[in-house]
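User: Before I run my own analysis I want an independent prediction to cross-check against. Here's the chain; please return only the structure tokens and, at the end, one sentence I can use as a sanity check.
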Amino acid sequence: MKVLTIRSVPDEVYLTIKKWAKLNRRSMQEQLKYILEQEVQLVQSSPGFSARNWRERFKERDWGDITDDVRKERTR
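Assistant: Structure tokens:
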């Protein structure tokens, strides 16, 4: 696992996370890992993320000219 260091966290953010950690009976580190994991899951399940992945997977594929294909089908 990787180690992550975050500097210059605003006091309000720090105190809020500390409060959440206490309410959830977690350490600050566990609470921050939980928050990051939840955010990653939200982003990965978003339609935009999914669309980006599909575009990336098919970017090298030659799709040809759709207009020409439709014209050819109409004359068939």
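Sanity check: The mean pLDDT is 90.
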